[in-house]
Amino acid sequence: MDILWAALGDILSPGNFGLLLGGVVLGLVVGVIPGIGGLFGLTLLVPLTYTLDPVAAFALLLGMASVTTTSDTIPAVLIGVPGTVGSAATVLDGHALAKQGQSARALGAAYSASMIGGLFGAVLLSLALPVMRPLVLMLNYGDLLAITIFGLTLVAMLSGQDQLKGLLAACLGALVACVGLDPHAGEERWTFDLLYLWDGIPVALVFLGIFGIPELASILNRGGVSQEAEGQDRTRLRQGIGDTLRNWRLVLRSGGIGACLGALPGVGVTVIEWIAYGDAARKRKPHEAEFGTGNIRGVIAPESANNAKEGGALLPTLAFGIPGSATMSILLGAFALHGIVPGPRMLDDHAPLVITMILTIAIANLVATGACLGLTPLLARIARVRGTTLVPVAMVFVVFGAYQLHKDVMDLLFLLIFGALGIMLRGLGWSRPAFALGFVLGHNLESFFFLSYQISGWTWLSQPLVVLFLAVAVALVARQILKGFRARAGRTRVPPKRADLAFLILLAFVFAAGLISLRTLPFSAMIFPTATSALALSLSLILIGRSLLWWKKPREITAWAIGGDIKFIALVCLLSALLLAFGHLTGTAAFLLIIAAIYRYRLPHLAGIMVGVLAALWFLFDLLVPQTWPAPLLF
């Protein structure tokens, strides 16, 4: 108890508490800008802590890292663009609620669930530290592979009535994750002789393209986020908080999922949020809305798990120096910078610092939630802004979020490629979450599979935990497929879209070509993508055959929808070209002037947007984190 009071006094001292608040503010700013993420903030802050004592340094670092998954909810709900990859599941129901004029309710539920989940994760961390080491050491790569496959089976619950398309989308995502140098033999796979692709395709680009570009195009086509009048934001906010409190069992269950899975090295935040979302979706009550159409539980579950996972991810980091997430891997660098060696003796040698870290996570979540709840009535008004104003501004930050990754023209090219793919998947009714989940899990699946096979051959399939998780995964998929057949029984079969059949044929050719190209690679480099390509080719041929059997008069996508999407892609191309030609500030100003001419902004309206956007870009990329941008092509 004396250690607890001493740690509390340390963290609440004016200097340390001020640094904690500074970290929280930076974390909220970083989280709200699509494509930036917590890694960006930690990379910025770690060198700045060199002259600080450990308590002050980790107050700043953990204060920032703990809250990016709180503020990333803002763009996810209001414009359907995940602020970080950890808010992709929140987009489904959160943005659907915003379209219905209930953005304040969704934000209130998300913030309160994030706070409770973050506190719950900190409590579990404090209770589990003494016993965590032997439990985590019991898990081997086969167990982690089974857990990852279990997470992937949730695709079946997120793919509407057509589970085969969902599984095919997941396979496509897993194959995209294989692009680059393979992690075992160092062989090139589908890099097309581009040095840019050696490290694979960045996760942020995929998520911004698959989720951000299609949703912004949709908002522009509709004319705004919400087609319904939204008012009484404070009442809606209280309603959202009440929703969280009424679903306290879901909050604690999802928080437990986040904390426990966060403690497993290699199971990232994206996997955790989908597992929590899928768990909530399986237990939907009959009177509730379908998940993905505006069910408030679809916001509460992933947000609870997101913030709880930070406490869980800190467990293996402190207990034996194995980072539980990418954020924690950077935190290990901070430990080394301050001469601290994580491991079994951490609790003995640095017990006050460990308690201080736990308190930092708890206090940061309280402060961040209070700040976000206070701003919610103001933020909710964004949902009532005209699409012709909101979308160009959001587009600027989405493009900058992509371009700042490598400051390479290839960043913009792949943003457009995945944006077009996202629009196609949305238009044809395919599951974008399934693709995203397959992409994120692809690296883990390949790594865990190869290591399991290398260590124990095929005997890993007989391990008890592996048998349990794989059995549950197979049962879940079978149950969902049977439910789909029963739901369609007695109904008229829906004729396929001609564009859908063409897309399936294109995918079949791509998978076949991928199989042929893998033949010359070593076993370690080709086994996983070959197996995945064969499964994907089989699924695509089954779907093609089914489409031909069900063929009637084909349905088409409405021309106006395609026209609106093409117009939006053209605007993204225009912004990218101006950015490359004139630089980040001048190019943005030129883009806003062209947008003002197209949509006939009034002069005060244009001046306000111009000053606000350019000031935000200058503050973030020139003042706060000075960037070395490539020289503009015209200068």
From TrEMBL:
Residues 19-435 form the DUF112 domain. Coiled coil: none annotated. The chain crosses the membrane at residues 20-46, 109-129, 141-158, 164-182, 194-213, 256-277, 318-341, 353-375, 387-406, 412-428, 435-455, 461-478, 499-517, 523-545, 566-599, 605-625. Keywords: Membrane, Transmembrane, Transmembrane helix. This is DUF112 domain-containing protein.
